[in-house]
Design goal:
Layout: H1 3-16, H2 34-56, H3 58-64, H4 68-78, H5 93-99, H6 107-124, H7 133-137, E1 147-151, E2 156-162, H8 164-173, E3 182-194, E4 197-202, H9 207-215, H10 220-228, H11 233-250, E5 253-258
Antiparallel strand pairs: 1-5, 2-3, 3-4
Helix pairs in contact: 2-4, 3-6, 3-8, 5-6, 6-8, 9-10
Length: 259
């Protein structure tokens, strides 16, 4: 290691771990002494970490309100950035909120962070093509039972007991902070990207088990059996048609295969 690299490594540790570097690594002058100069770098680095987290967790900021800055500072203290790209520093926020006091006593915060991070990662996901009605219409009738719908890799399902999607929507639209609601049963929020736009919405109780089965690669016949648990025979098929149309319009299906 060269002398320059050694100094750079010492400065890195001084900023990240607040370890004092050798006194000859920083020089003071009439404007600022050594400690003041170092404090500028430490303060600036923390500000940039906070700014990056604010960008990624707008729904969490809406939900946490005035406690958001304190939450970020506690996370930064507990989880120093370990990646060269500051964008990935927020990967542990949801897990941190789930175990750290006092945040773990409010499970809605961890759920909100999971949705924010899912939206962020969906935006960064690789581009994929999607099939349309023409491709689906070309499937022979006798092939439908074993037809496999290949769903987009960026598609994510998140379980939640709270109206987390309402908080993220308020943050996205600059709307007033909604009232927190806790549901009697968990619901599912779907996150996906179409083109360059990330979408999210709450799923109907009969849709999410069918969609989850499709994401697992189960054949179309199995999807119909799953849906039939929520509807009688006369209603199940029209509902399946409606689900397929919605998935096609949303660009959720990237391909077709036979199992």
């Amino acid at each position: 290691m060269s002398a320059l690299q050694a100094i750079q490594q010492q400065m890195l540790q001084a900023v990240l771990a607040e370890k004092a570097p050798p006194t000859n690594a920083i020089r003071s002058d009439d404007i600022a002494d050594v400690e003041s100069r170092l404090a500028i770098y430490r303060h600036g680095y923390r500000i940039r970490l906070r700014d990056a987290l604010r960008t990624e967790f707008s729904g969490l900021q809406c939900m946490a309100g005035q406690r958001f800055d304190a939450l970020l500072d506690k996370y930064i203290d507990a989880h120093p950035s370990e990646h060269y790209n500051i964008r990935w520093h927020g990967s542990g926020v949801a897990a941190f909120l789930a175990y750290a006091r006092p945040w773990r006593d409010k499970p809605q915060l961890a759920e909100m962070a999971r949705l924010d991070w899912a939206i962020s990662t969906a935006f960064d996901a690789a581009n994929e093509t999607s099939v349309g009605m023409a491709e689906l219409s070309s499937v022979p009738p006798d092939a439908w039972a074993n037809l496999q719908l290949l769903m987009q890799e960026n598609l994510q399902l998140l379980g939640s007991l709270y109206n987390i999607d309402a908080f993220r929507r308020a943050a996205d639209n600059g709307a007033p902070r909604p009232r927190l609601r806790r549901f009697d049963q968990a619901h599912q929020v779907m996150v996906w990207r179409k083109g360059t736009t990330v979408h999210y919405r709450k799923l109907d109780p009969d849709e999410w088990p069918v969609l989850a089965a499709a994401m697992r690669g189960e054949p179309f016949a199995s999807l119909c059996v799953t849906l039939a648990q929520h509807h009688d025979e006369s209603a199940a098929m029209p509902r399946m048609v409606a689900l397929l149309q919605g998935w096609l319009e949303a660009g959720l299906i990237r391909g077709l295969a036979t199992v």
